[in-house]
Amino acid sequence: MTLSAAYILLGIVLSLPGLALVWGGAPVQNFLRQFPRSFPAAFLCFGGGAAWFLWIVSQLGEADLAGFPRSWLLGIFGVTAILSFIVLKDLLAVRGLAVLLLLSARVLLDVGYMQLPYSFVLALTCYLFVVLGIWWGAAPYIFRDWSGWILEKPLRHRLVGLLLLALGLANFISFAFVPTPVS
Q: What is the 3-state secondary structure (H, E, C) of 2-70?
């Protein structure tokens, strides 16, 4: 992935929920209220995050495995992910969102590596992802409480939507400043 593609993709991914929060009505509010404990959201977010993590483990070099057999690590992490759906159902969607934030920050930071100052907005966004991913992964009830607080008043969820939209637009605008590679 190129830096330009990362900016465009990140701009879309951040702008769409921002637009939904600004102009979405009751359906968006209901989705946000139900998201932390929704099984379909948990299946998509946590299942997707677990699959992505297992793929990363399957691609590690022998030096990164520290002498452990790859099949053992894949089995341990795979069983842990499956057992999470049985034992740890509560707020699993938020934990999955945290995993996706952290793994996407890893990929996006790799894309922007050694491309400063052009990758500054991308790095800033990724570090925000890292902070939120660690926070929501360790304490998923914080996301639940935030979403409840945001939905108490219409002005709050519109402001959060505007912040997401502004961050998405900042990434779109940063795309324009990335130099085109000379071949």
A: CHHHHHHHHHHHHHHHHHHHHHCCHHHHHHHHHHHHCHHHHHHHHHHHHHHHHHHHHCCCHHHHCCCCH
- 161 in a domain, yes or no? yes
CA 15 – CA 20 distance, rounded (Å) = 9
In a domain, 74, yes or no: no
Question: Domain limits at 31?
Answer: 3-38+91-175
Is residue 162 included in any domain, yes or no? yes
Task: Find, among 132, 123, 161, the residue nearest to 14 by Cα.
Answer: 161
Sequence-separated (6 or more) residues with CB below 8 Å from residue 60: 70
**Please, what is the Cα angle at 62 between 57 and 63, to 5 degrees?**
105
pLDDT for residue 168: 95
The residue type at 12 = I
In a domain, 131, yes or no: yes
User: For tokens 């605008």, what's the residue?
Assistant: 173
Domain count, the chain: 1
Residues in the chain with pLDDT values less than 70: 181-183
Task: Please state, in angstroms and rounded to a whole number, the distance separating the CA atoms of residues 99 and 50.
Answer: 8
State the DSSP code for 91: T
The pLDDT tens digits of the residues spanning 45-79 come to: 999 999 999 999 999 998 888 888 999 999 999 99
